[in-house]
Amino acid sequence: MWFQFFNYKSKYSSPCERCGVLVSDDQPECPHCKGLSSKNARILKGIRKNEMSNKNKGLSLLMKVLFCLCGLGVVYLFTL
Q1: Cα(62)–Cα(72) distance, integer angstroms
Q2: Does 5 have pLDDT greater than 80?
Q3: According to the model, what pLDDT value does residue 1 have?
Q4: What DSSP element (H or E) covers 14?
Q5: Which of 33, 53, 60, 74 could share a disulfide with 19, CB 3.0–4.6 Å?
Q6: From residue 48, how far is each of 33, 40, 42, 45 by CA, in Å?
Q7: Sign of the dihedral through C-alpha 62, 67, 68, 72
Q8: What whole-number distance in Å separates Cα of residue 62 and Cα of residue 25?
Q9: pLDDT per residue over 47-69, tens digit each?
């Protein structure tokens, strides 16, 4: 379905309490942190969080540039 393409959280999955990754409710244990200690699971969670923030930096910059360009366009239209 199309909502799976956008990483939509369905009602049949929930985040793992140890590592934060979405896990299907059908699985008894999280496959990502199954054999890890609590300390290693926290480290895994921190690594994933850093990776996500690094991936979102480019998107954030793009949105800021587009916002500035739209603002300049509006200012230009009102000064005509």
Answers
A1: 15
A2: no
A3: 46
A4: strand 13-15
A5: 33
A6: 12, 12, 10, 5
A7: positive
A8: 36
A9: 888 888 888 888 899 999 999 99
pLDDT computed for residue 13 by the predictor: 82
Neighbours of 48 (CB within 10 A): 14
CB-CB neighbours of 36 under 10 Å: 15
Spatial distance between the Cα atoms of 53 and 41, rounded to a whole number of angstroms: 18
Q: Which tokens belong to 6? A: 């956008």
Ordered by start, the domain boundaries in the chain are 13-78
Say which residues have a Cβ less than 8 Å from residue 38's Cβ, sequence separation at least 6: 18
Per-residue pLDDT tens over the stretch 6-49: 555 556 788 888 888 888 888 888 888 888 888 888 888 888 88
CA dihedral 27, 14, 38, 48 (to 10 degrees): 110
